[in-house]
Protein 1
Amino acid sequence: MGEGGRLREGVRTYLMIAGMWVRSTMAYRASFAMTTFGNFAATFFDFVAIMLMFSRVDMLAGWTLPEVAFLYGLSGTAFGLADLVIGSMERLGRRVRDGTLDTLLVRPAPVLAQVAADQFALRRLGRVTQGALVLGWAVSRLDVDWTLPKLLLMPVAVLSGCGIFCAVFVTGAAFQFLAQDAAEVQNAFTYGGTTLLQYPPSVFAKELVRGVTFVLPLAFVNWLPASWILGRPYPLDLPDWLAFTPPLVAVGCCALAGLAWRAGLRSYRSTGS
Amino acid sequence: MTDDGFIALQGVEKVFEVRKKAGFLKRERRAVRAVDGISFAVARGEMVGYIGPNGAGKSTTIKMLTGILTPSAGRLRVAGIDPSRERRLLAHRIGVVFGQRTTLWWDLPLIDSYRLAHRMYRIPDARYRENLDRLVELLELGDLLDVPVRQLSLGQRMRGDIAAALLHDPEVLYLDEPTIGLDVVSKAKVRGFLRELNAERGTTVLLTTHDLQDIEQLCSRVMVIDHGRLMYDGPLAGLHEAGESERTLVVDLERELPPVEVESARVVRVEGPRQWLAFPAGRSAAPLVARLAAEYPLVDLSVREPDIEAVIAKMYAEKAVS
């Protein structure tokens, strides 16, 4: 089977299993409605905290509220999408511990797709909705001369950002084959990463900005594309064209995450730990 | 591929490296041989019991046979396929039932799990319908198809799991403790079905169990594994001989009497009018009962089977002596 066939098989498996989870959740409609609302509300108050901060100051490290909201909306939507698609992968460690991963390994379907769709939860749409609303509000308030490239870069940045976060989720899950209680470490990079991206890069120390640009390339989720769209100086005086590289960075990250996953699964199958 | 090697293992080993905490940040590595050079062959259509104490290497063997784990050494083939290399290809030809972990969808009606298997295994429509009808009839699932799995009893769920593992017509069925926790009626249903499956469709069955009666009623051949090695491979009767295991006849007499004296059995315990007699497991209880009934005032009796742990323990004791 070629890579194309593999991908198709993976997507097919993913949709089948995600569909089963959606129907499982619908067995408890009231609970579904409440958790979706809860998910939305929790992230909503997250943004309220930022608004409260701006009631005291006009600028945050040189950025206005709509600008910070723009950063927030881009990373929030990208992260929300990734969380919706494969956020449950952090449960892999539990599946390894209790042995239920084995039941997935005896099926004629790719394990990554099965694990990614595990516990698929539509309630996570709450976070995506909140991110998109903040993004929409920011766009309506920003004083930006909208051109076609600027408009196009937004969805590209969101999708690439989603890809980058997905890669972080998969890598974290691959690591859980070795250390089954590593979910918290993974959360530091995913939830922690998205919180970091809600603030302008000028708030943070140079070393940290360098880290999330060159080591864990979260800066490509929103800092670089947003800086270009808003006409802001780039963090670390990076070249302009980097604002258009998020798709490449996302593909690269996903490829590396795929390798990490393969290595993790191979190690599980040889150690069974 | 010859048919007598439908499942074939040659010198299969599985070594785990266990890391143990030995102080702050320090880890000690220790190699554990879970399976230590096992060789056996199972012919197509055989029904084999695979038994041994906990931690003996049973499930590790099953995991290698299903392609979950990669062997550390040795050669392993199932239906001519190397399981660890072609896991997904093999998945179409084997069925697996984990007694303690259901693969059914907890919150959905039973039929939904079957529909998923239909699509995931790409079972042709006609064959799926035919298999489903047959399994539903044989396993008495008709009234349960629309019931959410979480509402099924343990026995019903086990039958549901067995059906799920067989929808794609696998040639081999692995069962890990298929009767664990089931009541007598459910056990009988499961065993009856497995016997029929094996006889009618020639499905090769390999089952691990703690219940010696599973083996007695189902398997013509039993393999005993302990410490990662195959200790015994042959008929069940031979196992009893090798382990010198004994069944126990419990008799209630009309009144307290001195230990009964009867050929081919010995009294191991007396408690008021109740006495415990041990006799070789390979023998029938009938002649013994007949003689007792003729010579003593018998009120009631029951026969207790030896359990696997006891049989294996005796086997060891025997080895240590000889």
Note: Residues 115 and 128 of chain B are 9 Å apart (CA to CA).
Protein 2
Amino acid sequence: MNDISELTITALRFGFLLLLWILIFSIVSTMRRDFMIGRKAVTGTPTAREMRKHPELAPAPQPVKQHARQLVVVEGPLKGTTLALSASPILLGRAQEATLVLEDDYASGRHARLFPQGSRWFIEDLGSTNGTYLADQQLTRALPVELGVPVRIGKTVIELRP
Amino acid sequence: MIQSEAVPKPRRNVELLLLVLALAVGIGASAMVGLNSAAAFDSDFWFQSSLLAVAAFAFHIVLRLRAKYADPVILPIVVALNGLGLALIHRMDGPADDTGNNQLRWTLIAMAVSIAVIWFLKDHRILRRFTFISLAASALLLILPLVPGISAGEILGASVWIRIGPMTFQPGEIAKITLAIFFAGYLSSNRDLILLAGRKIGPIQFPRFKDLGPMITAWLVSIGVLVFQRDLGSSVLFFGLFIVMIYVATSRISWVVIGLGLILGGGFIASQIFSHVAFRIDSWINAFTPEVFGRSPGGSGQIVQGLFGMADGGLVGTGLGQGRPDLVPFANSDMIIALIGEELGLIGLFAVVMLYLLLFTHGFRAALGTRDAFGKLLACGLSFAIALQCFVVIGGVTRLIPLTGLTTPFLAAGGSSLLANWIIVGLLLMISHTARGPVDTTPLAPAAPATAASTATTEAVKRQ
């Protein structure tokens, strides 16, 4: 300690604090990309050059998508009923407050819910007794419903149509 | 939701650069400490510094091999914190003390275990299979210190240690990982049931008891054992973990409200029943009263000396090795934040807090980016555990909340905490690898629909 001057020690002291913050600023600046969350272009849509180098990165041409416009009951006591779809979710069940009141002994009061998310409709079972089946698969979680795929609730089968 | 559509970049070279900087911080700190004491740059210093550096680079190489896309920031932050902690613990060692070397040993063991986790586990989704085994393991780990044969008895007012040969170990530290795995596994498969089934009372929808039963059991076990072991800090940690994971899984703010209410209520009851809790609260509120300051046990001397130390440090600190942290009891473990505040000043203390903040945000980024619900919940839970530990310790030392016996992650002396936190880092790195890497289509666990979050309840439906 004797052979090192007071000045050197002070310089080292401040130098160390500076080093700590240099570390922090370099961490933050390496992650600058990640802080721009909203802008897709920045978080990384591949550039034209990257697309040329890796052809698999080019966005696949989007197939023309048809949106579901109506719900049709294709089987069961309510066969033939149609319901126009709007932006709001639909409750299916025997309860009187349901959007589509199913006159079906095998349906629960609040059986399932059909809700829009983005451009797709999802179906979700609300803990019904007999379950909801999407294309013969029992629902365990919310799943997207494609056009023309049958959804079975008790004896009722519904489909989404364009 | 941030699905990275970018070309996945490993960014391992960035990590290497940051790692060199981080090692400069750690080794620089220990050089500064040596500079101010008699033994500057002796063979010990070189030996220990090179051990730390070799371990850090080995970790880096393992990441290159096994988790190429892992977040490049997490490892450097942790190495910097750990290196700084090693230097500070060395600085506090008396001539006969071996705490510093012991901490270095534990650092190497912990890094080795963390490397082993990354090497052999490969995919965090495998852990989901061990949901209920984790619950059993947590219960076992929490009960171990009460078993007569291996219990290390009551040390410093809490019986949370076990004895393995010459070493003591705190199994509760590992239990926080296994509990997080259990919560993540259970909630990711039962989230919809908890969310949608159940009856509504007032504005709150209560889940059915059978859906929540295992969660409540897990919580009761951890809290019950911890009340027995008189470890206040860990019970706050487990409780916080429980609330946060259930909140993240269901996105219902009512859980947070209920949780805070229960913590306040539980704290009040505990302060009425347990004398050590009452002492803690009294020495928090009336810290500067002379009779509280000098009281033993349960005085506020430790906190107040720490505050004096930080006041002495001021903005830029006294310089490493030049303060008087020997006046503060447990300056190398519980009060290490006060030691940093004294010797590195407010600027240095904020740098450390900033490092923790960055670590925490990167843990959460891994949670946001990964595609499976289990990984999301696990990453959230683990990074929150680190954040809550920091809050409880730093808040306690700065007298924002009562001081409880939690360890400062990576900094404080204590092998079990170091081991547990390095394992957490290993898991976070692995989750961030799947989050940032190219989409992995192996059908290991069915990914739950994260965006199809059914947060809206059914009462919004009106007859059209």
Note: The first strand of chain A starts at residue 70 and ends at 75.
